[in-house]
Amino acid sequence: MNKFTYASVSTTDAAIAEMDEHDSPKFIAGGTNLLDLMKVNVENPDHLIDITQIAFNQIEATADGGLRLGALVTNADTAWNEEVEKRYPLLSKAILAGASPQLRNMATNGGNLMQRTRCYYFYDTATPCNKREPGSGCSAIGGYNRILAILGTSEHCIATHPSDMCVALVALGATINITGINGDRTIPITEFHRLPGDRPDLDNTLQAGDIVTSIDLPVQGFEKNYAYLKVRDRASYAFALVSVAAALTLEGNQIKEARLVLGGVAHKPWRSAEAEAALTHQEASVSTFEKAAAIALEGAKGYGDNTFKIELAKRAIVRALKQAAGLEEQA
Amino acid sequence: MINPREYIEPGSSWPLGHAVPDQPATHTVKLNINGQDVHLKIEPWVSLLDALREYIGLTGTKKGCDHGQCGACTVLVDGKRINSCLTLAVMKQGCEITTIEGLAKGDELHPMQEAFVEHDAYQCGYCTPGQICSAIGLINEGIANTRDEISELMSGNICRCGAYPHILDAIEQVKGVAGHE
Ligand SMILES: Cc1cc2nc3c(=O)[nH]c(=O)nc-3n(C[C@H](O)[C@H](O)[C@H](O)COP(=O)(O)OP(=O)(O)OC[C@H]3O[C@@H](n4cnc5c(N)ncnc54)[C@H](O)[C@@H]3O)c2cc1C
Ligand code: SF4
Ligand code: FES
Ligand code: FES
């Protein structure tokens, strides 16, 4: 780890002012991703701005009847929050599928949105990586790529976004509240993360100095018919090979509304509007789900070690939809 | 328990015999460790784990991976279990930290320690301080009730020796899970 200076701030103004005064400053919240990356010299900030004393530490109702999750509330406190458990159980389930109890006690909602890829080469400073060192090349394409992406990749990067929480947030249609030098703004979570294209060094659309202040959940929580299915190499405490957030509203056996989002397959949580359209106004049945799964994976591309994910994702989608529709029990 | 290193005054020697480098980057941090206030002069990049082990001399908390992947470094901060390897000591200013050394009252072991001994819940013992602190954190949370739930919510602690069944037995006993003999 490189040497750095440190300051703790209690207001966003102070945080933004601190940002201005250093060459390569970084905010730190739970520290579970940033310190990990600093220990392997992938992140080398010259100054850390501790934002944990800023008062984004509440979960509260929004004016329109939704729920606002403070950026500094921990993943554990969010997942076990009574309102979240009752109204947005899909989010609780996704968060609890990630990391470990100790890490969830530290990890914050803002930090979870911002966490970086787990691509092995990104962590290994001895190998080329366009995300870590723009222009150096991608070691994963043509290298060992079992955990990497099959959708929305580019010739420059096939990294995945590793979050479970974000997959549920996309399914729920969350919006992200941001403050920065240019004032406040709100964006849909689908516009927060991005695809790698020719700028894989950029994980998301946040500008330097921007702070995530909170995440808003709309009223509709899909609390009756939802599933979060995570497939991984061991039963707990492992990142997803593939995960599926499925949410339905049903009228009898008819699907009125559907949300289908995949994790572990792309540079961002992968929402398939086409698959959702193929589910809407259809009967909730295995054949409908199989059609939607095929549509969701159209255009998927395997890179060798990770090609199995295409079939795995299809099967996971069918199973998650069965669970959401109540045709199979959810673990 | 923290004697003779309980008060580490700015400018005094390091507990382990090094001189404190007088760098502009150093911070003075007060931690309450196992009920005792400890004042440290420390650089911002020192993890809570290294502060405990290398600066204060409390080596009960173990370093397994140093990357949040094993749980050996688990301690309780204000009653909640965390990985001390991914925590900066400067960020825990004023917090109450409980380590494995702080659990027993004199010669009287904490019930979780007793249960680990009784159930032989370890082989080499390297993961044990983290397992015990994590198990106490789990009980404080009050969420896990069945053996399966305990198992899932103890998944943040890896045991290279595979003592898992006995670890679960020990925790079940302390929790008073029905059906436990
Ligand atoms: C061993 C291990 C296993 C894991 N397994 C999983 C898993 O299975 N699923 C999963 O989803 N996650 C997993 N994680 C990742 C974990 O969820 C993230 O590390 C965590 O959510 C990051 O939050 P943090 O508060 O610790 O962020 P930090 O490490 O403090 O910060 C991360 C980044 O976000 C920036 N940042 C933080 N807060 C803000 C803010 N409010 N505004 C702007 N920028 C901000 C920081 O500057 C930094 O660049 C795992 C982590 C580890 C170490
Ligand atoms: S996939 Fe992306 S993160 Fe991984 S080596 Fe290639 S450029 Fe780097
Ligand atoms: S040493 Fe901290 S989790 Fe392994
Ligand atoms: S007892 Fe040896 S690692 Fe757990």
UniProtKB/TrEMBL annotation, chain A:
Superkingdom, natural source: Bacteria
Pfam families membership: CO_deh_flav_C, FAD_binding_5
Domain FAD-binding PCMH-type: 1-222
Molecular function terms from GO: FAD binding; oxidoreductase activity
Matching InterPro entries: CO_DH_flav_C, CO_DH_flav_C_dom_sf, Diverse_Substr_Oxidored, FAD-bd_PCMH, FAD-bd_PCMH-like_sf, FAD-bd_PCMH_sub1, FAD-bd_PCMH_sub2, Mopterin_DH_FAD-bd
Record SMART domains: CO_deh_flav_C
Entry keywords, A to Z: FAD, Flavoprotein
Protein name: Oxidoreductase
Organism field: Mucilaginibacter galii
Taxonomic placement: Bacteria, Pseudomonadati, Bacteroidota, Sphingobacteriia, Sphingobacteriales
From TrEMBL, chain B:
Gene Ontology terms for molecular function: 2 iron, 2 sulfur cluster binding; metal ion binding; oxidoreductase activity, acting on the aldehyde or oxo group of donors
UniProt entry keywords in alphabetical sequence: 2Fe-2S, Iron, Iron-sulfur, Metal-binding, Oxidoreductase
Superkingdom per UniProt: Bacteria
Sequence ranges assigned to domain 2Fe-2S ferredoxin-type in this UniProt record: 27-103
CDD domains in the cross-refs: fer2
A Pfam family this chain is assigned to: Fer2_2
Gene3D superfamilies found in the cross-reference section: 3.10.20.30, [2Fe-2S]-binding domain
Record-linked InterPro entries: 2Fe-2S-bd (IPR002888), 2Fe-2S-bd_dom_sf (IPR036884), 2Fe-2S_ferredoxin-like_sf (IPR036010), 2Fe-2S_ferredoxin-type (IPR001041), 2Fe2S_fd_BS (IPR006058), Aldehyde_Oxdr_Iron-Sulfur (IPR052914), Beta-grasp_dom_sf (IPR012675)
Protein's recorded name: Ferredoxin
